[in-house]
Amino acid sequence: MNTIRLEKLLSHQQNILSKIALGTALNDVLNDICLSIEEIIDDSSAKCSILSLEGEQLFHCAAPNISAEYSQLINGVHIGPNVGSCGTAAYRKSRVIVENIETSPLWEDYKELALGFGLKSCWSTPIISTQSKILGTFAIYHNIAKVPSTKDLELIDYFVHFSSIALEKNVNFLKAERLIVDLQQSNDKFKAFTQVMPDLTFILDEEGKYVDIYGVSDEFLHNSPNRLINRNLNDLFSKNDALPIMAIIEKTLASNEIQVFEYELDVKKGRVVFEGRTAPINDYQPENPSKRHVVWIARDITERKKTEKKVEKLAFFDPLTNLPNRRMLTERLNMCVERVKRTKKTGALFFLDLDNFKRINDSLGHSAGDELLVELAKRLSSVIRASDTIARVGGDEFVILLEYIGENNEHANIESEIVAKKLQSVFHEKFAIGELAFQVGCSIGICLVDNENFLTDNILKFADTAMYRSKMKGGNSYSFYDPELQTLLEKQTELETDIVRAIACNEFCAYFQPQVNILGQVTGVEALIRWDHPGKGLIAPNEFIPVAEQYGLIQELQNIVLRDICTLLNQLNTDKCIDESFSIAINISQCQFNSSTLKSELLKTINDFNIRPAQIKLEITESMLSSDIDNTIKQMNELKENGFAFSIDDFGTGYSCLTHLSAFPVKELKIDKSFIDKILDNGTGYSIVQVIISLAKSLKISIVAEGVESEEQFEKLKGMNIDSIQGYLIAKPMTKDAYLSWHLNNITSGT
Ligand code: C2E
Ligand code: CA
Ligand code: CA
Fold first, then answer.
1. CA distance 730 to 518
2. Separation CA 180–CA 125 (nearest Å)
3. What are 400's strand-pairing partners?
4. Which of 63, 205, 443, 490 has CA atoms 20 to 30 A from the CA of 416?
């Protein structure tokens, strides 16, 4: 390179570099570069064009001596393997020298355009950044076909280098500008975000100092934000509150992971439950690069916690009594079972069911029932220890769980009885409901939680079974569970299903057994139910009556018997073979006798058949007279007023009310078969029968002997002034049709 050229080059270089350094607009710098090379290069027809590459396209940057129209037409051209000199150079990432545009295959698609502007040759060099990225192209055009000399190429390389500095600086500048814009945007977003966010955000340093606070009002803060900044939470909070917060900061930084936790703090608003989330930040303060920080977001979850508590209460507690419900009980029982397994000591579960609660509920209404249950819950809770669980598991069912009741079963049995008595004691005092006061009883079932009873469900079931046993004893008592009882209960359930089926299939009917006086004349009949089972044959009432009573099926059976009685009476009436005094007895169960619908049920059926109540005798047992005497008398009088008569069945076995007998409207006594069986022994059997007969005579009550099987018994009874007898001696119970013909035979042969 000659000296003049070198001097020119140096001066241009200085000029260009200083412009770049001063941050002159890119276009100006690039224009200068073009003008400089055009001036220095040998051929004065040289024209320079600089394009920049953005993605896959080349864009016009500077070409001061080329027609602006041409520059415009090639602006944005896509690079490729045959896209003139520049498109191809950028594509190949290497210099492309085209001596003659007219003949070059690379210019095939563009030669018309270039030639139209008088451009004949084009040498294009890619402009490459320090990171080896193509920034654009640097091209020299001539209006003659021409190849570059080595010197030309050397010169071009110089200017390509300047162009690369200018372009690269510009790219970096743009990048920095974009970064600043991005940063600004994200800052704005963050600000907007923290302003509307219901949460508080803190930036704390590793020592617990407040560095920044963002968020809504300061009611969730301990103090106003500007008073907190730069202060350490250790100085602001009590040790108890500060320690756990510091522990979280340490954990967040040590684990480098997000932490989620709950904590409570006294803030301006009051005591607030917060949900905190923390994350570590490494470069929060560029001026303090070694310092690490924690971002702490605090959300007020006090209301949510309250709702959760309410929901939990609903799920685990009975809303009426506030006692734990079955779900909670099951959980406690599971825990108890685990404890028993571990300690080998015994616990106990008491299942308590009110006697006759339904009656109170039905007669006084549910709110009265509720009142009673609430009062009972209070009383029961007062006699157990705080560590015991009392739960309401059904309408009037309560369960008391004692996790520990004894060292072993024997000890536990004794203790359980003491507890059962204590539970019963809360029923001694009457329950006041409004103006009224009620005596209520309960049946208790006890199941021990020991090494044999591990299944929660079973324990509850067993205690329930035991409770049932107490019910069957007549209520107001407690019983222990015993596995045989369970089997019995299962059999009973089976039987119940069968009874329901049998009622639908008309398998039940009444049999009839006559009663005769000492002359052998028929005075009446007793109806006795029978089940003609398709598989088992004729089944006696003792096998199914107790179950029917227990499962509430007795009324339906009773109606069947009563209908058969009415049919028979109608036939006898039609045949005119009975007189006014003739009646048929029907056995009334205890539960029916207690029911308020007894009278209406009886009247409904007999009215349907046009039968007078006087033709029906109601047999109730002696034991039914011994409970709730006032009510019993009332009930009996009401039925008597309607025309029904009463006979006391199984008399002599109840002992209880011989002396009160006169108080009841009784027409007849039936001496129990067990006494008749012993009547010939001249021992106690005989004397008892004699006492009963004389008592009845004095009260003007007629007397029937049951289960008379022999002539001797009959003779003896005649001697004792009996009124009539019933038993196999006269006839066994028989079907309606059999009885009809028996009756016809006997009235003709009798009187
Ligand atoms: P119950 O009322 O004491 O009836 C008398 C029972 O003694 C009847 O048994 C009868 O068949 C039986 N019997 C009568 N005479 C003799 C005799 O000379 N020798 C012996 N060994 N037995 C005799 P059944 O029919 O099996 O009834 C048993 C119990 O079932 C009845 O005792 C009664 O308590 C109940 N029962 C029967 N039918 C009904 C009914 O329709 N409703 C209700 N609630 N209970 C009924
Ligand atoms: Ca009877
Ligand atoms: Ca009897």
1. 11
2. 33
3. 350, 390
4. 490
CA 211 – CA 281 distance, rounded (Å): 12
Closest-CA residue to 427 (of 418, 436, 437, 435): 437
* Residue pair 677/685 in contact by the 8 Å Cβ criterion: yes
**Cα of 670 to ligand 2 centre, how many Å?**
8
Give the closest ligand to the alpha carbon of residue 619: 2
pLDDT, one tens digit per residue, over 617-630 is 999 998 888 777 88
707 C-alpha to ligand 3 centroid (Å): 8
For residue 632, the CA-to-ligand 1 centroid distance in Å is 23
The full length of the chain comes to: 751
Two tokens, residue 448 = 């021990």
Q: Give dist(CA 652, CA 610) in Å, integer.
A: 35
According to DSSP, residue 245 is labeled H
Q: Which residues have a Cβ under 8 Å from the Cβ of 288 and sit 6 or more positions away?
A: none
Kindly report, residue by residue over 657-713, the tens digit of the pLDDT: 566 788 899 999 999 999 999 999 877 888 889 989 998 999 999 999 999 999 999
544 CB-contact burial (10 Å; exposed 0-12 / middle 13-18 / buried 19+): buried
pLDDT digits (tens, 9 = 90+) for 196-217: 777 888 899 999 998 888 876 6
Q: 505 C-alpha to center of ligand 2: Å?
A: 25
Question: How many A from CA of 621 to the centre of ligand 2?
Answer: 8
Tell the residue number behind the tokens 């616990």, with chain if given: 347
Summarize pLDDT for 59-89 with one digit per residue, the tens: 999 999 999 999 999 999 999 999 999 999 9
Spatial separation of the C-alpha atoms in residues 211 and 232, rounded to whole Å: 9
The strand pair at 537-539 and 441-449 is best described as: unpaired
Q: How far is ligand 2, taken at its centre, from the CA of residue 636, in Å?
A: 17
CB atoms within 10 A of CB 13: 15
**Ligand 1 atom showing the smallest separation from residue 511 Cα:** 25
The structure tokens listed for 572 are 């006898």
What is the average pLDDT value for the chain, to the nearest integer?
90
**107-160 confidence digits (pLDDT tens):** 999 999 999 999 999 999 999 998 899 999 999 999 999 999 999 999 999 999
Q: Which residues surround ligand 3, an ion (CB under 5 A)?
A: 649-650, 706
Q: Which residues line ligand 1 (CB under 6 A)?
A: 513, 528-529, 540-542, 545, 561, 587, 589, 649-650, 707-709, 726-728, 733
Q: What is the pLDDT of residues 489-507, one digit of tens each?
A: 678 778 999 999 999 999 9
DSSP 430: P
Question: In this structure, which residue's CA is closest to atom 42 in ligand 1?
Answer: 587
Of 216, 209, 299, 312, whose CA–CA distance to 262 is shortest? Answer: 299
Q: Which of 690, 736, 726 is nearest to 706 (CA)?
A: 726
Asked if 60 and 71 touch (Cβ cutoff 8 Å), the reply is: yes
CA distance 345 to 331: 19
The preferred substitution site among 559, 587, 671 for testing ligand 1, maximizing ligand atoms within 8 Å of CB, is: 587
